[in-house]
Design brief:
256 residues; Rossmann fold; eight-stranded mixed β-sheet; alpha/beta; globular
């Protein structure tokens, strides 16, 4: 019996280690889902960063105020362009194709995407009086980085999380996520550096981002600087299908 238990323990340990190695080696595949290139009727701005060509789809060109939008990890900016353009007609809106997504070259990575986002902000700053920043899911981690390092009028975080480490720890509680993960997207640590009025929108039935992870981020903000809206009966993917979603963002950012 003892030998049998010992053998079972060894097998379980080897399975545990093997799956841990699998998670470590494939962590990028859990985080990034590059979307293909596509045609669009809108203008394209090309940024040169680290030898890569970073594409930015530009909507409603020529307005004094702007919105920078950073999408989810599988969101197509080409696919989102038409609807976003209609929702914010009085703003010039910039949609960043992450590295390896759409028309952008390179490979997505946390530090690289931060660098691209700041390059975009710095490139368009002189053209606009006011710049608001929005980010959805993975993009919320990039949006908080920009807001912590640049002057932002309004910040909108959609289905956000406190950090990728905490999200992963919740999904794989038996593994030390803080040791395994190379990329953090730690929005929680940046909250003290954010001075913009902030709106957090999350879905009642979100199965991707744990409610606790979003709540941790909410709790870190000062109440007077934060507005929180929950979209009932919606999940992580279909949150934007509710009319309340865009209306909330429009009311918060204000007129162009």
């Amino acid at each position: 019996m003892k030998n049998m238990l010992k053998k079972i323990s060894i097998v379980l340990f080897l399975v545990y280690v093997a799956f841990g190695v699998y998670l470590y080696l494939n962590q990028r595949h859990f985080l990034y889902f590059p979307t293909p290139d596509g045609t669009t009727k809108y203008s394209n701005l090309t940024l040169k960063v680290d030898g890569e060509s970073i594409n930015v789809i530009t909507l409603n060109v020529g307005h004094p105020n702007a919105i920078l939008y950073f999408g989810g990890n599988a969101e197509s900016m080409v696919g989102s362009a038409d609807y976003i353009a209609k929702q914010f007609p009085q703003f010039t809106v910039y949609l960043l194709d992450y590295r390896g997504y759409g028309k952008s070259s390179g490979v997505a990575g946390e530090d690289a995407l931060y660098k691209d986002a700041l390059k975009l902000y710095d490139t368009i700053k002189s053209k606009h009086k006011r710049i608001s920043v929005g980010g959805r899911s993975l993009g919320s981690g990039i949006a908080t980085y920009v807001a912590a390092h640049r002057e932002v009028s309004k910040l909108v975080l959609i289905t956000p999380f406190d950090s990728i480490v905490n999200v992963a720890q919740g999904k794989y509680p038996l593994y030390p996520a803080s040791l395994l993960l190379k990329e953090r997207y730690d929005s929680l640590s940046r909250v003290p550096m954010i001075h913009a009025k902030t709106l957090i929108i999350f879905a009642q039935n979100d199965k991707v981002i744990p409610r606790e992870s979003t709540q941790n981020l909410i709790d870190a903000f000062m109440e007077k600087e934060l507005e929180v809206i929950i979209i009932d009966n919606r999940g992580h993917i279909d949150i934007s299908s509710d009319d309340k979603y865009y209306k909330s963002v429009q009311d918060f950012i204000g007129a162009g």
